[in-house]
């Protein structure tokens, strides 16, 4: 019995370790790589680092994310409103917090239908790595992104997502993952 338990634990640990190996965070926007001169040595390394910094996805850029069932969804951070104002007097940020609104566009670039609750897989962060989740509330900037997105191939969805963050926090990035945040591929955009 002990041997079976030890063997089961070892197999579970190995499978868990292999599953974690596939996680990928993409911070580079979709666009063809620019053909350029390769520079040898330290100058080449500095130029490459500068290109990587410039290539970080920002507001207006699209990143195509992959899901569990080979979904391919192009996600664009369209606009940011900080602070965002509530659409009514009943829904407001928690005391000491403010709302941040981000408009997203999702386009199904795959060859089969896509269904998800995309806001479950969205979070913002500050420069220290503190993460903040979405909030339930509509803002004056525009219509909210649906909590139940269903897209045929080529179809798109557009809407605002609200985040509840402390008033003194400077949000620097947003992350998105498909399949309610469970997919192994995450897109990351700089907001500053």
TrEMBL record:
InterPro entries: DUF4352 (IPR029051), Immunoprotect_excell_Ig-like (IPR029050). The keyword Cytoplasm does not apply. Residues 1-19 form the signal peptide. Residues 69-175 form the DUF4352 domain. The keyword Transport does not apply. Residues 28-55 are annotated as: Disordered. Pfam families: DUF4352. Residues 36-55 have a biased composition (Basic and acidic residues). Keywords: Signal. This is DUF4352 domain-containing protein. It comes from Streptomyces rutgersensis.
